[in-house]
Structures are given as structure tokens and as C-alpha cells.
Fold:
Amino acid sequence: MYAYVVRRLFVGVIMLIAMSLVTFVLFFASPIDPARYACGKNCSPELREQTRNALGYDKPVIVQWTDFLKGIVQGRDYPDDPELRAAAPELVTHCPAPCFGYSVVNTKTVNEEIKEAFPVSLSISVAAVVLWLFFGVLLGVMAAIRRGTIVDRGIVAAALVLYAFPSFFIGLFLLKFIAIKWELVDVPVYTTIAEGGIGGWLSSLLLPAVTLAMLYMAGYVRMTRAFVLESMTEDYVRTARAKGLRQNKVLVKHTMRAALTPLVTLIGLDFAGLMGGAIITETVFNYNGLGKLAYDANTTNDLPTIIGLVLLLGTFVILANIIVDMLYAVIDPRVRVG
Amino acid sequence: MAFLSVRDLKVHFPTVDGVVKATDGLSFELEKGRTLGIVGESGSGKSVSSSAILGLHRKTSAKVSGEILLDGTDLLTLSDEQMRRRRGKDVAMIFQDPLSAMHPYYSVGNQIAEAYRVHHDVSKRAAKARAVEMLDRVGIPQPDRRVDDYPHQFSGGMRQRAMIAMGLINNPSLLIADEPTTALDVTVQAQILDLLQDLQKEFESAVIIITHDLGVIAEMADEVLVMYAGRAVEYGSGNEILTHPEMPYTWGLLSSVPDVSGDTDARLIPIPGNPPSLLNPPSGCAFHPRCPHRDKVPGDLCFTTLPELAPGTRTETHLKRCHLTDPDAVYEREVLPEIAPDLVEESHS
Amino acid sequence: MFKYRKRVLAASAAIALAAGLAACGGDDGGESSDNPTGDAAATGEAGGTLNYLIYAPIEHVDPQRIYVGRDITNFSRTVYRQLVTFPISTDPEVSNTPVPDLATDTGTSEQGGKVWSFTVKDGVKWEDGQPITCEDFKYGASRVFATDVITGGPNYLLSYLDIPTDEKTGLPAYNGPYKGDGQELFDKAITCDGNTITYNFKKPWPDFPLAVAGLHMMDPYRQDKDQGDKSNFQIFSNGPYKLEGTWSKNKGATLVRNENYDPATDDPDNIRRALPESIVFNIGQTTETIYDQLIADSGDAQTAVTGQRVPPAYYNQIEGAVADRSSLQASPYVDYLVPNFRNMTDPKVREALKVATNAEAWINAGGGEKAYAPAESIVNPAVVGYQDNPAFSGPQEGDPEAAKALLEEAGVQTPFPITFTYPSSETADKQAAALKETWDAAGFDVTLDGLGDTYYDVIQKPNKESDVIWGGWGADWPSAITVTPPLFDSRINLTQNSDGQDYGAYKSDEFNSLVDQAQEAGTLEDQTAALQEADIVLGQDVAYIPLEIAQFYFLYGSKVTGFTTTPASSMYPDLGAIGVES
Amino acid sequence: MTVQASNLESEQLPDPSGAPEGDVSKLAGKSPTRLALGRFRRDKLSMVAFVVVALYILAALSAPFLVKFGVLDPTSFNQELTDPSTGGLPIGKLGGISWEHPLGVEPQTGRDVLSRVWYGLTFSLAIALTATILAIVFGAVLGIIAGFSGGWVDATIGRAIDLTLSFPSTLMLLALSSIGIQLMADILPGTFSDPLPNGAYVVFVLALFGWPGVARIIRGQVLSVREREFVDAAVLLGASRRRIYFKEILPNLWAPILVVFTLTMPAYISAEAALSYLNVGIKPPTPTLGNVLRSSINYSSADFIFFFTPAFLIMIIVVSFNLLGDGLRDALDPKTHR
Structure:
């Protein structure tokens, strides 16, 4: 088991390094000149050249890449200009390891940006996961039990319709009608627990979470339903009934236990994806999570931020995969990891 | 009046493609302490019928009709709740392929104990103790340790023993064993069968053993019921059926197993063709498409008319469903030499 | 310059780069619409909290780096005082004339505007109570030269201040206070004599006071507070307000009273009424959400103003009582087209393009009369000495027939293929399609070439394929010198690998010499005259085709008092005058 | 499962596999086609869905001709039908509905909404279709190779799948859009702003992040099919590898592929819309359901018809395709009760 985890982690690291290289090469080929944005208005070619040097974009891609990897291991200084460090050390920003880079646009290290944005994305995704799991599984099981009835069809159809509207449409609809027109809830503005207490925090998450939940719920309703129906036909469920177990005991202890196991994988991966920021939802509601950060970084050609995010999100996915496998080993005694 | 008597049992499954008549008018009787063997290829309706006796079919998916009198009460008239109370207590079942029949996520002990606690209001610990006891009884070594193992950690034989333990833990008066020995190697088979017999004596319960293996029948059954396409095609005492079968299908079954006496030069002749579809079974005698002897029947009787399940040429209690007028002769002359030459010689000398 | 203004307006219109397209305008002074108060006389009560709603994060708060009309005025009125500044008035004449602020007077010039000196008032203080000295001004100016650290700000000083150019880099030999190379050169160029600061320039800068008032590049900066790039979001105030806590790029910040600022002595001319007790810069809601709330007039929105323009989709909701809270004014920006002189060499073809251009359809595609006003010059009417350009007077819905005729005269074979390059966006795509209609009808064969982030990189390339290019512009200070010369003077723009801001590669000795006249001119009058002539030359050559002047259509909360937009505030809400009912 | 959280929420593009392999892998063409067809016909809901999908496809096919013959006119302006004083809202009730413009006209430009959504449907479906086909072909081929050859080949493909899935696809496609589209513009006819390069970029990205899902399913399929005797027979007869892949195995994969197809299409239709919201994809004046929706989302209160129409059309087609997919799955494999 232990050895297995180590091996998986090792493979993961290799993968991340590969990702970083790919990303660097891709962006280096990009026609966008990050220096232009930093250089600003009436920026002469000379000025831009100087800015490019200051930002280190003049170096060849491999050098930039290795610098980046070095930075992750041992941290970096920005701007990386010995002359300046000598003359005015207080101007140099030190980015301690693991340094994901420095965003000129936001005059922050990428680590700081992530530190600020991550809680938002995490909050939203947790709220969303709770919502869609609760309703998704509940409705899914209901549909399965009432298989073929109007209830079943109704649930599945409703979930499907909610899913089928583009998420940004749903988000805007909720915002404009639920929040603004009918004033059923406050216009959502992200509030930390520190600012608004648990209550304020939760209510600020409601609409974005609902938007995401609607998107995912359909899938979970239908999967839960499918898995439950499937395991209803399993021999061991028949055995359980043959013992004379009560119907709901059979359902809960025997059917569900088996049916919900495969959901773990999907939850794990979906959640990992969401933690990386729901770009559209966060943009619609203008919540400064990782998704919005990514979106803005893209509009301002903030390459360091983009690269940092790509790797961060990659890490989430890879870790999620490992964790899910671990969970499986815990849930299903047959699985022997290693 | 028999302890268990099944009358005209019908189990029909309505599907999008039509009604599947898995069991179509099955009747038999069984006394306490005795064993009925139900034989037939897969899909002949054996398991479906037994599941019906346990009331395992969901009303939504299956239409069950007829009578199942256990100790005089018709199980089919009971409410779901009443049936549930009897299930696993008065009537227990041992399923084939215990690996899939046991829940992979719960320990063997847990599952056995559960079967006990359903019908007895006892503590978890007590139930577990009982489970260990049963495991010990069915011959699992170090039961107190293995009780916490998961099904996949057991060997095939042990799993089957565990299943038996689970079935008998409430010492039911009727035990249905569905292919209890399939997928077990011969030696283990023997052990399991012995175990079943011992237990039956001990608990005085009636046993229905479902199998396609006549070897098992020879070992266990007092009476035998041969099923084909959802119907009984031959019914009689085990001895009778094995020595003087009167239905070509039974002959087929006989010739498709190694001789009971384990004779080595016995030859295996598989039954040609496949079991019929239960959606639209063949007209007349369901077996006629595969029957090598249908030409011995005058006219197209086999093709048009379904034979009655009626006493054959031998005894009143030996029923068969076949148009052949002199089955014994045909058997002696054509089938026996094929499958058991030595027996033939004996009968000549 | 435009780039950032455009970008911000773009953001403010909540549609990528090219609401920039949208963003421009001017107004003939008139039509003060439903503007409640206009002139400096109006007074509201003090106290309360004013919310300033902003969509896109502000890039720079550092005075030497601020370069966005809205931010320049907001910070001028609240935390960053200048030597001289513009007064509050809806009358361009008044509000475009600098008045003393941190200086005792509006400055004295010698050698025909080559040398300027100001005297810093006594008793003016930083928020920590220390006096503002001449050295602070000098240090502030020096930061402009640290072009590798203090990026993004206006850098006129680089070309004006009397410092030799380093041959290798092509940049001034002085590289700012941090590395300090060439410090002695800078100390010669800007000198402090007691409280008097003197600037020595290479060439005359007659409108220098306008530049000082119009931007923050000349603001004082306290050396001990300078952390270079780290100071980007720090505010060290010398105005009526100061920063409470820290500035958050994504959330904004709250300004509270600065007790070291005394209205009596610091604001005799009443250019900063500073009525609200505190001002909250609230960043982060989309323009749509902002207007949903302003229209509903709910909660904090009642005491809110914004620099975001009303999106056309909301116009029909602004009626009745809501309309009383709206303000419709022309912005100081102009959108225009330039023909690429490399490809469209024949003047008749350019003339045909001009004649066929349907500016009206463009305006309507962008939201109609509340979004844009017609423009008759690339210079905005808010600019000192504005005059209509005869080349572009008259109706502007385009005349395909006349254009066809011109093309025939030109003897080019039709359909004449042209590529129109513009920064793509929701609105821009519609507007471009609108132009295509009449152009095609006139015998051009138009390819629409809407670009993304790379827009300015592409159109500055000398080898671009574009035949017609969109541009947007706003004067940095109300003088035409910051409009036509930077856009059409081939000598400062056209280099081997870049067209600079002369996207059409326009090259005219006649024009250039008039620019020289303007720059050599010692007085504002002479300068203006020369520039007016220059604009006419541009018109004759069809160096540009004006499209429109963006209208600033704003809504504000019901508890906002004295809402004013002035040329001084680039027609954004003027925080110097606005108060709230508490 | 059937529904995938597409709409690009979560960092991942829609993953055609949707569910854990076990779920779909039951589909291998066990049941005779005729029976399947019979079952399908008897399923009313699926038939309705089928008809709707058919109608959409018909519309998509007809649009180019209707435009050619001037029946539909998605591009020309009718600004006389809009009122400049109201920000260019259509004159008249319900977004200017009239005989000439049954769904009203677009604000500011007066372009005919019906023509735009109708013609837009053509482009949206074209994008979804090509992307789906690419993803499935690429995924299927690799899946077959992996599943059949096993060993290091299988391992390598597996790694490739993991690496691809580790990338935050939405962020990547945002960040790479300008270079990606430029690239497309270089190899394909058309400029940076023309429909072809932009559409091609979307197709490319969807396929790029879509194939791993397909590959996984198909691999699972192949593993099961592989065990069947006739393949061994083919091997014994010394049939060439390619022959075995495409003659022996592929025929047994059509069922799952068909289902994956019908379930991937809708996911990509929503994806196109979501990408348009992020300003990636075919740009106006060329319409797609996505960019028409994007231009309408701010008109919730000003012009509800215009606001709701595109979203509604997208919803219908996505729902229909999903139901169709369900129906096929049920028909092809009665055992999975969905």
C-alpha cells in the first residue's frame, strides 16, 4: 500500500513536469507579448525591449522553464535583476519555495494569488458538491425505487432539462430573477466566514453553488438510479431478501452500499476539477476564485499566473485520482492496492 | 396432506418482447425429511419455481399463480410482510455461485449473523456467536477467526459451506438448494452433499435440491422432477427415474453425464440443439425439435399436441410427458447400450 | 495612451477590448441633459458614505503609474494633489484651465516654454503630518525614468526632460532612482531651490501645466515610502481622504478623512468639497449587476455612483423616476478609422471610403444616440481650441452612389477588396458588420478582420494586410497636442519594425511642419492655431475618418447629491462635488 | 451515465465516457439488432426524441440552401426595425415579432433572429458532429490498439490518456485560443476572424480532450470482446493485426460507439455554447447557437423572447439527444434498466 502510494506520487510528479514543459513550449510559441501589457500605453519598442528583459521573457524557453523548476524547488527573486538587488534590495520581491512564479499584472507572487483565490473556489465547490450529492442521490434512489412510474420519468426528465440549459444561462437567470428581480436572496457577493459568519458565508455561496449543482445533479441522479437498479439485480441482494430482511434494510444495507461505491470515483474527480475553479460560474457571479483568476489572467496575458494555475489544477486531478483509488481500497475489501 | 404441495404453479414474466413463461403449470409434493431433486438444463424453470416458493419474485416484474401450500397455508395468499417473516426462517435457500450470492463488502460472519438477527431478537454479539457455531457445524476450520473474513477470502467449498450455514441458521423446515455443488470440484462436491444430508437428518427438514447433474440426484433425491421448458416432463422416485427413465429428454440428460457408477468407458452424448426460447416455445411437445425419437410417434402428434403428464407403462407414481407408447423398449434397445454397455450385458446374462 | 483608456472603458462596458471601440466621444458643450447640478456653486451636505461601483480591477494606484481617465480624476479629488489641477465646472473653458493646488501659482515659464518652475505652498502635509517638499516632487518625477520597475504610466517626461539619450538602449541615460545610473544628469534637469522646483526641457512645453493637472506623473512621492513595484497598490495621501487598511485589487478599498488635511487652508478654491465622510471603491460586480441594482435603487446602490456606462440593453428601464437619476454627457474620447496609406495610395479611393462610411449605422449598431454622438473631427470638442473639421461636416449615413462614382473616377477595378481590422467584441462585431453594408454597396469588397488580445501588436506591424483600421483616442490633457501629433507624426511613429500609433502609416511633410510649429510655439494660442490647421490637412488627405464620440450615460443612487460630470473629471462622476444624503 | 457535466464547468471538457467503464461496457452488441430496433420503436419517449433530433438535423442541413435562396437572411441589417432611442431595441411587441421575422429581430442590428438561430444551428451541429467523430475515431483506434495489444503499448496509451486528462482543458483552450486560432488560420483558408479557423480550433480542442474517454470505454470493450473465441480463431488463422482490429473486433463495438456518439453530441453542443460565452469559437456575423445566446443573455428584461429563444433551442436539442442515447442504450442492452 505504502509503496503503491509512493510510486503513484512519483509518476504524478513526472507527469506534472511533463505538463509544465508542454505548457511553457505552447505559451512561448504564442504571438501574445506579455511585455506589451506590462509596458502599457505609448510604449516605444525600446521600452518594450527593456520590459521584456526585466520580466525575463527574452531568455530561451528552456532556460525560462528550468528557472521555473528551480523556483519551485528553492524559490526565486522578482525581478531577477542582480543590479537592482544590489542597488535597492527592498524593491525585490522574494518568492519562497515552492514558487509558482510572479504575476507582473497583479504585482503578486502566483502563490499569493492562489492563496487568495483558492478558498473561494473551495467554498463554492464544497457547497455545490453537497447540494448535488444530496439531491442527486436522493432523487436517483427515488427514481430507481419507483422505476418506470411517472415519478421516475419526472425526476429524470427534470434533472435532464436543468442540465441541458447552458450553465452561464442558468447562472445569469438565477442572478437576474431570483436575486435581483424577485429579491428572494441578496445579490451574491462572496463573503468569508470572518466577514459574514457561517450564515453570510453560506448565503453568499447559494446561487453559484446551485448553478453548478444543477449542472452536475442530472448526471448523479441518472447514475445513482442506474447503479441502484443494477445492484438490485445482484445475487447478493436476492440472498438478502431470501434471508427475510425488510425491504428498506435490503435497500440501504445491501443495495445502496454497493451501488454508491462507483460514485466515489466520479465525485472525487468532479470535485478535484471544481476546486480548480468553475471558470464560467465564477465569471458570471464575478467571484474571485481560481476560475476567475484564470479567466482574468487570460484576458491580461498573465502567463506566469496561467502556468501556475495549469500546474496547480493538474496536481489536483492527479492527487484526486490517487485518493479515489485509496478510498476504493477502503470501501471495497476485494480491492488490494499495491 | 403433504408438508409442501405445489399445485399448477405458473410464473410468467411480461417483457417488451412478450410474455416469458418461465414456469407453466408445475405441481409436486414433498414430505418432511425427504428430498426432491429438480433436474433440467439451465432455463428450464427450476430456479424460477424455487424462487417462487420463497416469494422472491417482485410483483412488478413477475406474475405468479397457482398454489404453494406449506404446512397447509398457501404462501401465495400471504401478504408481503407475512411472507417476509417466513422467508429464511421456515423456508431457506442456498444459492449457486456463493461468490456472487454473498455481499462482497460484508464479512461472512456479519452476513450469517444478519440472517439470524432478522428472525431472532438477539444482540449482535449473540448472533455472531451463533454464526461461529454454525460455521463450525458446517466444518469451517478455526471458525472464530474466519468469521471476520470476507467472501473473497474463502475458497469455493468454504463459501458454499458458509452459504449452507446461512441457510440453516434458523433451522428451516424447508430448504431449497439451488445448484449447491456447481462450480465445485468433485471431492468438494461429495463433502458438501454429505454435509447437506447430515444436516437434513439433524434438522428433519424437507429439501429441494435443484441441479442439472444426475450424479447429485442419484446421491440425494428421494423423488425426482425433470423439467423442460418450464414444465415437468417426468416425475417419480429417484430410483425409478434413474433406472427406467421414460422420457427421451431424461435419456438425453442421462447420456450427457458420466455413468453414476463412475464407469470410465461410459460415453458422453450431449443433447443436440439448444433449450427452447421461453418466449415462444415450440408447438406440441416442447422437446420435439431435439427429440431423436419423434419419428417413432405416429402422425405429427409431437409437433401438434402437448402430451399429458400421465402415468407411464410402469407405476402409477411414475409420471411422464411423452407420446411414445413403449418408452422402456426404446430405452433398453437404443439408449442404454449407448450409455452403459455393461448394464446391458448384465441384463442379458 | 488610448490602449489603457480603451481597455478600461472596454472593461467598463464589460465587453472585452473593444468597447474601446465604443468608448469615445465629445459633445458640443451643450445638452447638459438631466444633470441636476452642474456648476461649481452647487453644495450638498457633508457626511455619509459614497459607493463608487467599478467592474474591472484597477491596474495601478501608484501616482506615477495611473493612466486611466477615471482613476486620474478620482484620485485627484481624493488622495493625490498636484502642483496645479482642474477646477470643478461643466464649462470646458473654466474646467480646462488649471488652478493652483500644491503650488502657489500655475507656474512660470521661460525660454518659450522650455523651462518651467513652480513654488510649493507652505504648510501642505502628507497624511503623516510631514510637510510636502520640493524634493518629494523631484523624487516623484525621477520614478518615471525607472522604466523597468515603474511600468505602465505616462512617460512624456522621457522625451521632454533635458536628459541625453543612451545610444545603446535608445532610452534616456538616467534609469531612475533605484539603480541611480546618470543621477547627476537628472539632478541637472530638475532642480530644487528651497520650495521652488524647476524643470528643464529639451523642447518647449507650453501646455505643461495642463499635463501636470491632467496626469499624476508629476506628483510628489516620498522616497521613504517607495517600494518600487510593491508600491503599486499603496496610497500615501496628501488629499482630503486617506486609505483605510489596504487596497485590494479585486475588492477595492475604503477612503476615510485625512486629519492632516485642512479644507480651510488646503482648499480655498473649493475644488475638493470632499462631502462624504468616507468613499468606498467597490470593485467586482459586472456592469449588468451594477445597473440592475442602481435601477432597483436598493441598499448601498442608493448612495452609489459608477463610471460604467449604461449598457444599451438597460436603456428602456431608465424612464420616469429612474431617468431623473441619470446623466447623459459626451465623453472626451473619439473613435475613428484610418486608411492604410501603404495600400490605399489613391486619394480618390480614400475619399470614396470616407463618403461610403455610414457612421450612423455604426452608432445605431452600438446602441444608438444614448451610446454615441456623431463626431466631426478626431479631436474631441472638450479639448481646448476645438473646431469642426470641414472634411467631415454634414450627414454621416454614407452615400454608396457617390462613392461608386468616385471609385470609377479613380479607375480602379471594382469590387475593390479591402480588409477592415478592428478589436473584436460583442458590440464591435455588430458595428463592423454595419459599416460593411454601405462599403460593399459602394463597390468595395470588405473582409471583416476582428482581432483579440493581439490587436495592437498586429496593427502596429508595418507589413499588416489591413486596409482600414479602427482606432480610439482620448487626449491625455485637454490640448490637441496630445491628439494629432502622436497619431500622425510619421517621424516619431514610423520605425522599421513598428508603425507606432500611426497605424495608417500616414506621412505628410506639410502636417509634420505644422506639428513643429505647434511644438515650437511659446503660447497656447499659437499652438492651438497650428494644430487646427494640421487637422484640416489630415481631413484633406483622409488620414482618418471620425466615427463617433462615446456618450457617458450614467445612473446614480437616489441619495446621491450634486452629481456632476466635468471635463476636469474626463466626464466621469466628479468626486470633488458629489455628496450623499446621510 | 448519460449526462455529463459538460458546459466546461469543472476544469474538464465533457468526457464522453461519462460513467465508469463497467457501466457502458455491458452494451456489446449482444442482443440481435432486430430485437433492439423493436424495443426502440416501442419506447415512445425515445421515438419522440428521435423525431426531434431528426428535425433539428433536417433544419441544419436545409439552412445553407435556404440562406442561398434568400429564404433565410441571418446577416443583413434592418436597423429601421430598431429604435435608436431605446438602445436599439426592436420596434413593436415581443422583440419585433412579425410575419417577416417570426422570432423578432436582433436589437441594434435588426438581423432576423429566426434566420440566425436556424443558420446558427447548422454551425453548432457541424462543430459538435466533427468534434464527436474525431474524438470517437481517434479514441476508438487507440482504445482498440491498447486493448488488443496490451503490454507496453497499452501502458503508453494509458499514460497518454492520464496526461491528457490531467490538463485543465478549459483554461488551456482559453489561454491557447489566440495562438491556436492563428495556427488554424495558417493551415486552413480564412483569416483569424473567419468561421473556419475559429470553428476548427473548437473542434480540435474538444476532440483533443474528448478522445481519452472514448478510448477508455472502447479499450474495456475490446478486452471483453477479445476473450471471444472467434477472435482467437482469427488469430490462429494468422489474420493480420489490422484485419483483426477492423474486421473481427470493430463490428462488435458498433453498439457502444453508437451510444457514446449520441451522448457526446449533446455534450459538445453545450460545450460550443459555453465556449462562445468565453468568447472562443465562431464569431458573429456568422451565427452559432452559442454566439447568438451570448449576444442575447443581457436582454432578460429588455427583450425576453430574444433572451430565451436560443437557450431554449439548445436545451431541447441537448435533452433530445440524451433521451435518444438512453433509448438506444436500453434497446441495445435491456439488462441496464435505463
About this structure: Residues 113-149 of chain D form the longest helix (37 residues).
